Amino acid sequence: MPTVTADVTAPVQPLGRRFTALLGSTAAANLADGIVQAAAPLYALTLTRSPGQIGLLTAAAWLPWLLLGTHAGLLVDRTDRRQVQAYALLARVVMLTAAAGLAVTGSLTMTALVVLLLAYGVTDVLVDLAESALVPDLVPRSRLAAANGRIVAAQQVAGSFIGAPLAGLLLAVGAGWVFGTPALIAGIAVVVLAVGVRGRYRATSDAGTGAPPDDPPGGPGPGSTPRHRITRDLREGLSVLFGHPVLRPLLVAGSVSNMCFTAYTTMLVLWVVGPGSRVALSAELYPLLTTVMAVGALAGSVVVEPVVRQFGEVRTMLTGWVAMPLLLLVPVIAPHPVAIAGALGLIGIASTGSNVLSQSLRQRLVPRRLLGRVGGASRAIGFGLMPVGALLGGAVAERAGVGTALTAAALVALLALSYPLVTVRQRMVNDPDKPDDPADPQPSRS
Asked: Is the pTM of this model over 0.85?
């Protein structure tokens, strides 16, 4: 008699109200980000057409990752992640309000704009690391890909789909609105986070002396100083990152790709915007191109789960990564707004799907107590190379032309992907849902 096998589908675990609140705060914060990030280079074009100075502006926004990323990750591991995110958002409110005042009085020079983006970048480090480390504390491990997909979708839709076009409109109204409006929106993000995500979210133990869980039960050993413990904790995070057979290739390839992509996007505005550019698009219409990328990003965040079920995480992630540099060649080969918009839309799909999977893999492969410092070290390198890319892109464009800089960035990014393509396989991540590190405590949510 044939055996009848019951087809039982496990119920999908909900993401929860706290995650919904975090998602709302993220959307508001990234709406403010989108306005600032789109408006800053467009405002700078009213002050200069120098590729070097435009590159410096972008470098300033990403430099804090290089300087502070690793230590900021340790801070996130040792303190309440929700509070870190809230205080950093409050700092944004203050600096954006000050920038609005400078813009209204006509005192917002190129130097002031660089300083503003440098300070804004510091808050970006803290907000992003705290948010990323907080997600596994709010959702079931089985829903990490879905949660990260929604986070990325909110970031792209709010930042690029809404924020970038809104920046063009606000810039037409007046520079003061460009910075005053995101200051108000960042304040809303703080309120949503404070009200909707209740509780304490620390990766370290509150018991006894407050020593981290990897200290002996009685606290730090004799002769152990705060500096020694910081050095030890940083070394532990770096050893996990560089010693892991999956995380290491992804870090190297992703970091070089980030550097190249930043060089590319920094120079793209000079290739597309203004009468001296190849495309001659107006500054008010340029944000619409980033809106197309946001539409693609939204699509990528929606389809990533079913695509992964069909083809697997590693294959999907690497396919998206390879597609990106190939698509970056389209604006150079076909410098027309329609072709550029189509390429950017596909880049949005590829980059979002790949980044969601890369983030989810790290959250699953790294013990919770190390998420802050491993994420900080990873982004210190991955994002830390982005200001280098911006400066290199400006230097190459100054000497060889913007088109050459765009082409070189795409080809170097493609070459960098050979490392994970050769070394990373799906079988290496097929058992990520192992129990947490025995020393890994559950966060307090009281």
From this structure: no
